[in-house]
Amino acid sequence: MRGGGDPAAARDRPRGEAPHRAPRREGPRRRPARLTAGRAGGGPRRRCEDLPATRTSSRAGSLGTVQGVRENTAIDQLAEDHTRALVAASPLLATVLGVPGSEHLLDDLSPAGHDAMAALNRATLSRLADLEPVDATDEVTAASLRDRLGLELESHEAGDHERDLNNIASPVQGYRDGFDLMPTATAEHWAHIAARMSALPDALAGYAETLRAGVAHGRVPALRQVELAVAETAGLADADGSFFTTFAAGARPDGSPAAGALAEDLARGAAAARSAYATLSQVLRDEIAPHAPQEDAVGRERYARASRYFLGATVDLDETYEWGVEELARITAEQEAIAREIAGPDATVADAVAALDADPARRLVGTAALKAWMQERADEAIAKLNGVQFDIPEPLLTIECMIAPTQSGGIYYTGPTDDWSRPGRMWWSVPPQVTEFNTWRELTTVYHEGVPGHHLQIGQAVYNADELNWWRRQICWLSGHGEGWALYSERLMDEFGFLQDPGDRFGMLDSQRLRATRVVLDLGVHLGKPAFARYGGGTWDYDKAWQLMKDNVNMDDGFLRFELNRYMGWPGQAPSYKVGQRLWEQIRTDAAAAAGEDFSLRDFHRRALNLGSVPLDVLRDALLG
Fold it and tell me: Beta strand pairing status for 25-26 and 410-414?
């Protein structure tokens, strides 16, 4: 369907809603994100000998592509030097990577901190220009460094960091989220937590300074995002309901409640954290909001830059929008056909949802049952795929399924540390009011976050230390590559025969339909595309996008609203799932055509995953060039 047609026009009513069901709200992968990987700052620098040593490979042929021992190259050394500088500058990145020594510190996101990161990126690119690749691995590293650091500099020069504020992946959330992966077993661990909470006033003051610079330069986040952040920061500042209050009160070092000096330090730290967020909330309300634009759309120039940042590829945005319209119509038709198979010849999608939700065999009650089911399904997928569709390294045969300590509704994956002391984990952050879960909705989520999704993808890159330097296996992360692979994995499991049950396949299409809807509304709003006629024509805006979401996404209103606000404030990220999947599928099709009868899907996947997360244009060149 081209020309702005309406794929939902034939339906008489919105899709059904299910109260008390778990949302499928995705946060960014718990990998180095913009807060941690793209920011430098002050604070004491840590000695290089405290960081993992530059590797010399010793495991020959571990994943089928490494032949013998690959010695460290000058480009590898440059990438590792850059990573060491990042980790030294970003205590939150160190926490993500499991590198000890800076647990009491936080990142500097002041203007000076951003300038320091830009200087590091320029210096690395300058050194890179003087180096020649010695093999194909070096070529991929060099191309990826140029793409990632070049875009970081482009974004810095455009002042994007001066309006870095949204409801899911800005420093407001990043500083708080930094506590989620901190160890909590011992008194020393909790002392680090107390010190890090006490560091929040200075850290958030630096971030506020950057936002003020944005006001001075006419670069201010949209009013909707500012208002959302005011509410969020006020919640973190509330003495009774703040995360920091409950987190500190729940300290159980060595299995016992914190006492004495440690308890006092934790109480002071929590109070400092609450005060810091209260101050930021006031800054946002009194200094930023009066200058914030009403318009959600960021326009073509900023959107094109964001799209390249998340995809690592340049796509035709207008063609991509038209493809998104067609893809939404195609998935809708496919899901409607299965709805009739599930609930009768005249059934709608809403009827099928109701029938599946009413099936007691597809219902889980309580988070303990959810966790057990997640673990069973994840282990089952690993057992059945290993040695058949994929060659899964031994450390990746283990995945831990976790109920997150927060209650935001997010579902996400955290990768293993380099030394495998912390395994890969699938996390589900369950809101307190959610007590029941429907397996038909969430089986595809297990495949997305586990195997063959993020667990295989991220873990295999970590395992492939013979081939990949530290930057390649732990720092370089692109949403289009990573989330595109995970969404591609959902379809793969259908292709491999794991979704023969109509309800499970219906759930996979439910997930795919959400992602296609994102493409339409995200590009539609931010690029000012014509809206569907059923929504009143004109150009896409927030209210019309809301109706599109209501018609196509099976979530309750609270989570739909969160998602839509996310798309308005984080342009280009949400479409990178579906567009990334499209690019993965195109690369696979081209590789199969080039290889002819010699094409092996198992070999294609092995070669692709051994590269780690790379820009999708680099992936194409590496696999097809």
Answer: parallel
Two tokens at 438? 């429907």
Check if the beta carbon of residue 566 is closer than 8 Å to that of residue 479: no
Q: Which residue has the tokens 């599928």?
A: 585
Quick check: helix, strand or coil at residue 315?
coil
Q: Rounded to an integer, what distance in angstroms lies between the CA atom of residue 74 and that of residue 145?
A: 14
Output the pLDDT for position 69: 66
Token pair of 10 as six digits: 């034939």
Gap between the Cα atoms of 275 and 277, Å rounded? 5
Domain boundaries, the chain: 74-298, 310-323+359-577
SS3 state of residue 363: strand
Residue 349: φ, ψ to 5°: -60, -40
Residues 6+ apart with CB under 8 A from 52: 99, 418, 419, 470
User: Is residue 210 within 8 Å of 118, Cβ to Cβ?
Assistant: no
Question: Nearest CA to 22 among 355, 503, 403?
Answer: 403
Distance CA 88, CA 31 (A): 17
Distance CA 132, CA 592 (A): 31
Q: Which two tokens stand for residue 570?
A: 């984080």
DSSP state of 425: E
User: How far apart, in whole angstroms, are the C-alpha atoms of residue 306 and residue 321?
Assistant: 15
Helix (H, G, I), strand (E, B) or coil at 506: helix
> With 0-12 CB in 10 A as exposed, 13-18 as middle and 19+ as buried, what is 319?
exposed
Give 238's DSSP letter: -
Residue 375: which region, alpha, beta or left (left: phi > 0; alpha: psi -120 to 50)?
alpha
Which stretches of the chain score pLDDT less than 50? 1-25, 27-68
Cα(484)–Cα(615) distance, rounded to whole angstroms?
11
What is the C-alpha separation between 447 and 153, in angstroms, rounded? 35
Q: β-pairing, 363-365 with 425-428? A: unpaired
Give the CA angle between residues 572, 485, 71 to the nearest 5°. 110
Write down the pLDDT at residue 474.
86
Q: How far, in Å, CA of 490 to CA of 445, rounded?
A: 8
| Cα distance between residue 324 and residue 515, in whole Å | 9
The answer to whether the CB of 458 falls within 8 A of the CB of 31 is yes
pTM score, whole prediction: 0.88
Strands 436-438 and 400-403: unpaired
Residue 436, classed as helix, strand or coil, is strand
What tokens appear for 331 in the block? 């998935």
Q: CB under 8 Å to 154, separation ≥6 — which residues?
A: 305
How far is Cα of residue 276 from the mean position of the Cα atoms in its chain?
26
Strands 363-365, 400-403: pairing is: unpaired
Question: Residue 17: what pLDDT?
Answer: 31
**Which are the contacts of 221, defined by CB distance < 8 A and separation ≥ 6?**
163, 164, 165, 166, 211, 214, 288, 292, 569
Contact present, 70 and 137 (Cβ < 8 Å):
yes
> For tokens 């927030």, what's the residue?
542
Residue 501 phi, psi dihedral angles, 5° rounding: -65, 130
d(CA 83, CA 469): 10
pLDDT at residue 417, as a whole number: 86
